[in-house]
Write a structure and sequence with these properties.
Shape: globular
Strand order of the largest sheet: 4-3-7-8
CATH class of the largest domain: Alpha Beta
Number of helices: 7
Order of helices and strands: EEHHEHHEEEHEEHH
CATH superfamily of the largest domain: Glutaredoxin
Number of strands: 8
Number of domains: 2
Oligomer: single chain
Distance between the termini: 62 Å
CATH architecture of the largest domain: 3-Layer(aba) Sandwich
Largest sheet: 4 strands, mixed
Helix content: 40-55%
CATH topology of the largest domain: Glutaredoxin
């Protein structure tokens, strides 16, 4: 005789829980970010595409098993305000700091994801590296960032505030607005 939990056999309850877990995982796995640019690891072309579409490019440096990278994807990137703002102003590409994939750098040279990350001093994740439309790095921000603050970081770049003030000053002046 099977054990019962309430009026349901335990075995069918376990199957239901497993099915629900799979559905939730599938939802997060297949939720795409509108500003995540499909990239063939040709950063030179990615920058040209962003410039052509009047957007900025930023790179999310990540690695497998990074809990803060996962939290950015699960919380910040799922926020509708973040999606709306970043879809309008940015393309994002992802680079795995331990990745072996070949990358074409902004100058056309070939490297690997790992070497590219090291070249830019990236050793921990996540780090968000924002570039202006000429490919100059204007900001690197490490760690998990709440949605409201991430929008401010985006505004700092997209509205050109990086030309006249530092990001800390900008965040202080604009937090809560």
């Amino acid at each position: 005789m099977k054990e019962k939990a309430g009026n349901f056999p335990l075995e069918s309850s376990r199957k239901g829980i497993k099915l629900l877990a799979l559905v939730v995982l599938a939802f997060f796995a297949f939720t795409t970010l509108s500003f995540l640019k499909p990239s063939f690891f040709n950063l030179k072309e990615d920058l040209e595409d962003a410039r052509r579409d009047n957007r900025f490019l930023f790179i999310m440096f990540h690695q497998e098993g990074c809990p803060f990278c996962d939290k950015m994807r699960r919380v910040t990137f799922q926020d509708k305000r973040v999606q709306e703002y970043f879809n309008k102003h940015f393309y994002m590409v992802e680079v795995d700091i331990r990745g072996p994939n070949e990358v074409i750098d902004f100058d056309g040279s070939k490297t690997t994801e790992r070497q590219f990350a090291l070249k830019h001093g990236i050793r921990l994740t996540p780090v968000f590296m924002f570039l202006d439309k000429d490919g100059k790095i204007v900001l690197k921000v490490p760690g998990y960032i709440e949605p409201e603050e991430f929008i401010l970081v985006g505004r700092f770049v997209a509205e050109g505030h990086y030309k006249s003030k530092n990001v800390v000053q900008f965040l202080r002046e604009n937090k809560g607005r």
